[in-house]
Write a structure and sequence with these properties.
GMP Synthetase, Chain A, domain 3; alpha+beta; two-stranded antiparallel ribbon; 2 domains; three-stranded antiparallel sheet
Length: 147
């Protein structure tokens, strides 16, 4: 059976002021800001923080789904994600995710939790990155004059 192609989601990126940059799509608005050190107000996460959060929450939804499908309690289950950056280049070098379970969590499911967390679409996309294309488009109908 063929999987239906995913419908592309257009995100509108806007600049509400200061160092804030928002993304709007599917009725949601995600707000970002820069740290005070970076010239912002630290009123929202920085874009890279949201990137890291997308990895952890993606793994988390797979862990949650696994537990729910087996009627396993999720009380006390949590993921801890640690990002390691290169001291010189400041680039992300490693993302480590620990799945913490309470003492009574069934031992036979512990390795399976790791396997399901590994199915995260965000992680898979990082491992096989898409092509990027950035272009400037002149909107003559909604153009704002620049002085």
């Amino acid at each position: 059976m063929q999987r239906a192609p995913e419908v592309p989601v257009d995100m509108m990126i806007s600049f509400p002021g200061g160092k804030k940059v928002d993304a709007t799509f599917n009725g949601f608005r995600i707000q970002t800001d820069q740290s005070v050190k970076g010239g912002g107000e630290a009123s929202a996460p920085e874009p890279f923080d949201l990137f890291l959060a997308s990895i952890g929450t993606c793994a988390g939804i797979f862990v949650l789904g696994f537990c729910q499908a087996r009627n396993l309690p999720t009380a006390g289950v949590r993921l801890v994600q640690r990002a390691t950056h290169n001291a010189e280049t400041k680039r992300l070098e490693q993302v480590a995710i620990e799945i913490h379970v309470p003492e009574g969590f069934p031992a036979q499911y512990r390795d399976a939790l790791v396997r399901v967390a590994d199915q995260c679409k965000v992680k898979k996309t990082i491992l096989q990155p898409p092509a990027f294309h950035v272009a400037t488009v002149v909107d003559s109908e909604s153009a704002v004059s620049v002085q």
